[in-house]
Amino acid sequence: MADSNDSKKKRDFGISRLMGLPYLAAFTKSITGSAREMIKPRQSEREETFEEAVTRLQLTEEDIQKRKKQFLNLAISFGVFAFVVLCYTVYLFWNGHILAGILGVAVTIMILTQVFRYHFWHFQMKKRKLGCTLKEWLKS
Q1: 64 within domain boundaries
Q2: Which of 31, 97, 103, 111 is 20 to 30 Å from 72 at the Cα level?
């Protein structure tokens, strides 16, 4: 009887193991955790005004203007790049390359997040106010 049990254990591969379900479950959990971390905004380490930050970082007016210009130039550069990628994405869809087009849409969205980031930082420096809201940015 012991022989019968041993041979049964050797033949029982386990469908879940065979299909890799434990691996898929761990992978899915990892991906969802990463997505949550990317979506959840980080909390600021300190609450301070623009003037307090300028004093703490020992910035001159020239430094602020230079940084403002850099952020605006980066936003424009990424915007142009996003437009080029979007045009290529339309071309891909037009020629029937659906999967490549979907990837192009994803890349365009990623680039546009950078446009928003740098333009928002430029906006905060222009307004000389930290912690501006999306509503304030949209109204300007």
Answers
A1: yes
A2: 103
